Amino acid sequence: MEPKDQPEHVLLDFDLLRKLVVGIGEVSDITGVPQRQIRYWEEKGIIVSSKDGEGGTRKYDYLNIKKILLVKELMDDGFTLDAAARKVEERMRSMSDVFAKLAGRTPRET
């Protein structure tokens, strides 16, 4: 089956998105954000990674990759890092509320 022939629900595979975990190198390649900058954003608490054991590779889930993309977009538009981070948190809360409603839960029950 060609990708264009796949049903739209494949695009909204929440189980797949929950399982998606990508190394920092891949995240950097995909987003265009240097690894050093990703580490800095993590130090600032803007994003969170999981690590493979002591000194292991940083891994990022879908939500953190989304945050990286949003922060980058806002900074490219002239926002400071702090302003972009605040705006992204607002967007993520709003998105969380919408998806919670779609899933039949009240916001922030997750």
TrEMBL record:
PROSITE patterns: HTH_MERR_2. The keyword Iron does not apply. Gene3D superfamilies: 1.10.1660.10. Keywords: DNA-binding, Repressor, Transcription, Transcription regulation. Transmembrane segments: none annotated. Residues 24-90 form the HTH merR-type domain. It comes from the Bacteria. InterPro entries: DNA-bd_dom_put_sf, MerR-type_HTH_dom, MerR_fam. GO terms for molecular function: DNA binding; DNA-binding transcription factor activity. SMART domains: HTH_MERR. PANTHER family: MERR-FAMILY TRANSCRIPTIONAL REGULATOR, REDOX-CYCLING DRUG-SENSING TRANSCRIPTIONAL ACTIVATOR SOXR. This is MerR family transcriptional regulator.
